[in-house]
Batch of 4 targets.
Target 1
Amino acid sequence: ALSGDAAQAVVELEDQLSRIDAQLADPSAWKEERGRAVELWQQRAGVLGALVDVHTTRAAMASF
């Protein structure tokens, strides 16, 4: 189980991920702007990394 703070962080990160995915799914959001798709994919990777960090931290704390 996640603490309240960790759960809130996960919800916020998942919301960010949803917004990024929606933009990636809509080429009109990035097709005209050079490099925008790359920027969105980099943001997505960062958010996924942050989600892993939250869960890894929780798992490490649970072992104590």
Target 2
Amino acid sequence: MLFRLATIILLAFASLPATAGTIVTASAAAKAAAAGDTTIVDVRSPREWRQTGVARGAATVTIHNPDGINAFVREMTKAVGGDKTRPIALICAASVRSARAARILAANGFKNIQNVSEGMLGRPDAGPGWLKRDLPVSPP
């Protein structure tokens, strides 16, 4: 009976989405970036950057790199000046790609990762998003 219960618990946890790093709101990420405590990195596509702009001061490193995930990791490493312990806050449209990027980066040695849970466009379960919060944007 105990073995069966342990198996059920393990299977339940295995079905949960994997996360890496911590969750942060758009407002908190903006405040940390303005204080110089973190670097925001927008992982959306170049087309999306042009459509909405990017968070002011954000680096732009697309997870859609045509050369694959290894190229994405190389570009992220460049964006943090080679320092994989440097605090970063990843943002995308609604936190799906940034969560995936966080998992990829954690698996590749990045240590200080935050995920902007509401993204640029917002999510009903996470918040209105960078744009609706009227946080500063810049052209890509």
Target 3
Amino acid sequence: MLFNLSIAALLHDVGHAPMSHLGEKFYNVEKIKQEIAVVCDSKEIAYDKFYNIGAPHELMSCYIIIKYFYNIIQCNKPSKYGVDFELICRMIVGAKFSDDDQWFKNLAIEVLNSKTIDMDKLDYIIRDPLMTGISVPPIDVSRFFRGLKYLPEYHKVVIEKQAITVVQNIIDTRDCLYLLVCNHHIAVYTDFVFEFYIKHLMLKDDKGENAKTKDKLVARDFFSCDAIGERLVTDNDLMYELKKYYTNVTDTKKISSYTQIITSQIFERKFLTPLWKDLYGFKLFLHEYITDDSVRKDLLVKMCDSEDYIYRRYVAREINRAIIRKHGEVFIVPRSNKFYFMDNKSSEFYIYIDGNLKDISELLPQKKYGELHSGAAFYVYGPQDDIEKVKEEFVKVVKNGLPSKDKIDYPESKPKWLQ
């Protein structure tokens, strides 16, 4: 068990795409699952219980491990350990066993991939503040692991009371990351710009010879199983592909207007300006300018739908039309708020104190972000010299009321690679 957990912990992120979670959005999950089936069948590994679960990069990690690390792991494992590749993949995607007699394996799965505190989260919660420089509570990892305890009578891994302050610091640090880093207006903006620029280039590639300009991106070159596992594509490879239309093309007639606008934003850092810069500013803006509660709630639903951006595109284009700007100069970007106690209504991670299992909220007071912020928010970006006009037109469009979807003539565009 320990050897399998060690392998899963070491290799659980080998399937990340160029640009990490941003690039992961361009993985075709069905194609990855097909490749998993092929490699698992060749090694006689059961896969039907894990390959329909997990994030795209987790599935890609499973594929990479079985395809490229199988022989390495088998040849280098200590003789006293067996290798269970199905269990390793279950740990990575978080696919628990349904049988009660597999509870011990389920504990190992929770240690690596759970809804609350696990080794994956502990990794980025420590690393990200170090890399970004934000000030967060210190996390005493040694004390945390000394406080881990296995309770066979409960079939649970718990934290003993001496490490409760470490757990609190982990929760506070995670919330700080979402508030100060993940929801930072520049981070949200640049993620969005890269994502939609990549999508734009994929759609241009789909047009083939019918494309009027030459800027394009071939999805399989960067987001296929072969690209990740065989050619080992990196952030630099993708950035080079995106940048060549900015540096190497002198005839602007050969690249689209959108590419010209977006590449200057990305590579010259000519960022658009947000109407507000944080979640507090967002809340104050809406309550000041959108005073009708029903209009405000409806706006949140329509602007924050992560799967359907037809309303955000509609509002952005209405603003562009009013202030005479081009496509790519006004963006509306949704952002979910994932504070700890908004995500986890009931904790699966327990504090063991005086012979009882307690949730940390029972022992220490917690910040109630859910009372301050809704589960989702959004940013509005526009040109700095026209930002007041953007604000005026945004408020005007919202107050005039948003039409039903059938009245909006902006059909969804999805690259063939993702269909």
Target 4
Amino acid sequence: MKSLASICLITNDVPRLRLFYETVLRVSPEGDDTFTSFALPGATLALFGEADMERMAAGSTLGIGRGACALEIEVEDVDDEHGRLLALDAVIVKPPTTQPWGSRSVWFRDPDGNLV
């Protein structure tokens, strides 16, 4: 294996998730209401419609559910991002916390319930 190329979130509402991640990541997406991608350092974050996935491969989304993914995004200042997320009305799961191993993080949910 060479590297992780992308993470694709399957969703019932690509436009809603695209707007959320465009606002949170401050990156312009490419694509449309079927498939959208965000080119990020290290890997691409992609969003794909569940109905379109089913058209490509019947049964491929059976039992996938929502909110079962956790994404980790590195930022310069967790506390600044926390303030920005609050202003965006993001659902905060865990406020800024310094972990025992020294990293600092804030946890929040995307509109589909995925943990970020």
